[in-house]
Amino acid sequence: MQCSHSNSNQVIKFSATLPTQCHSYQLDTGADISIANLDHWKKIGQPPLQLSKTIASLSVWGGRSLQIEGECTVKVSYNGKTLQLPLTIVHGSGTAICGRNWLKSLQIDLNAHIYGKSAPLNPKMPTIGTVKSTYSRQKLDDILNQFPELFSPGLGHCSKIKASLHLRPDAQPRFFKPRPIPFARQQLTNEELQRNVDLKIIEKIDYNPRGFAAPMVVVPKPNNKVRICGDFKVTINPQIDVDEHPIPTVDELFLKLNGGEKFTKLDLADAYLQIELEEESKNLVVINTPLGLFRYNCMPFSISSAPAIFQRVMDELLAGIPFCAAYLDDIIITGRTEEEHLNTLKMVLTRLKEFGFKCHKEKCDFFRDKVTYVGHVISKDGKRPDPKRVEPLLQIPNPTCICRMPWSNPMLNPAASHYRSLQGLVPWSDLRHRTVVRRSWSLQGTGRSKAYDTFTMSKHFWGKSTTTIASFLATPTSVRRSTS
């Protein structure tokens, strides 16, 4: 049977396939299950009845019991999905009831049905933080409802720009055979290949041993699925002119957020794949699989120029919009007031719609007091390192010999930004660069004590420090010119 909304209040109509008639089910959020009488059961084709394994008795409001005839399974289609749902058949008369089990499974929008205004019921929709005023919360909902296509399923398609890859003059085609795939992942890999073909991310091409072909790489994902990509480091990556568009630094990103109170984070779904390749570039990104050769129609993740190309698109997209920044596919938005935040959000969503992008709704956050962004936790008070990334660094043991120092040194560079002077890092640097036999020399003398102090202080700053965003602008810089 197929399900559609009716015009009558609190009623949903189902048009059964056998016979082809419309049957009314009354919405009842107080009913645990969906029920119908024997007359209705006969009208929908008398599907086989069986004893219910979970329902011992039924009673209506007031305590009156209902005699259960049995339970059947019916095929219900609603809003693009088809499900097999249980329907309990009882003796008596009255309208068939659509209970909470069907409401939940079909994800029926009660707001749209009762009030005539749609509201997302999906628990995985973007989370919205606390908005102080009812007016601002309502305005935020109104803005999001203006852009339903941005969070709809499917792959976005950038309509403004196409990516182009440029080979060096001395480039030579390289063709590699497919790599074997573990038996346990073959079915998942074939399904993922077909999904990519259906989305027009890739397309099958004829065998050409004189062209480019990179071996396919299968990467397992946490959701028991796989991601496919090409090992382009053995084919075109060493032979293309890499795009040199600058990727913004952390300080450059946070400088744009100065004065922000709350923060919104947008994540683009399959970001790079939303940008189409120029026709001449498509034949350069070919993957060799056990099912044959496939070429990418969209920009794959593993191309060395992909980050710079995508960052250029993001910079063009956000040009002229205040209080927002983008690091590749992660966009962050803020404002000094709620009204300013909402206006910026609307401008960004409008640009995304114009460009044809789509967002990953499960990874978006709206109006949050703090968000995690590029390895930092950002709030109105400033930024600090993400505790999840800091914890492994805090567990690094103090080095006992010079040979272990290179493993510990990377943690010092970020911590240096919290020092009033870099002078405290000098003893550690001296120990690393002395012309001695490093592999056998132990840390000794006063140099050892200063180096250990530096190491301990760096751990402390990693775990406890916060750099206020406004501090980047707080200290004026004066430039003096000599007249001599």
Q: Would you give an account of this structure?
A:
Helix content is 28%, strand content 21%. It has helices at residues 38-43, 100-106, 110-115, 134-145, 183-198, 250-255, 279-282, 306-317, 338-355, 387-394, 405-408, 412-415, 426-433, 445-464, 471-474; strands spanning 2-5, 11-15, 22-27, 35-37, 58-59, 65-66, 68-78, 81-90, 96-98, 127-128, 202-205, 214-220, 226-230, 263-267, 286-289, 292-296, 324-327, 330-333, 365-368, 370-373, 376-379, 382-385. The chain starts with a strand and ends in a 10-residue tail after the last helix. The model is unreliable at 2-10, 14-19, 119-128, 435-442 and 469-479 (pLDDT under 50).
Radius of gyration: 30 Å
The global form is globular
Average pLDDT for all residues: 78
The main β sheet shows up as:
5 strands, mixed
The percent range for helix content is 25-40%
Strand content: 15-25%
Number of helices: 15
Structure class: alpha+beta
Strand order in the largest sheet: 10-19-14-18-17
Distance between the termini: 91 Å
Offer a concise description of the structure:
The chain has helices spanning 38-43, 100-106, 110-115, 134-145, 183-198, 250-255, 279-282, 306-317, 338-355, 387-394, 405-408, 412-415, 426-433, 445-464, 471-474, and strands spanning 2-5, 11-15, 22-27, 35-37, 58-59, 65-66, 68-78, 81-90, 96-98, 127-128, 202-205, 214-220, 226-230, 263-267, 286-289, 292-296, 324-327, 330-333, 365-368, 370-373, 376-379, 382-385.
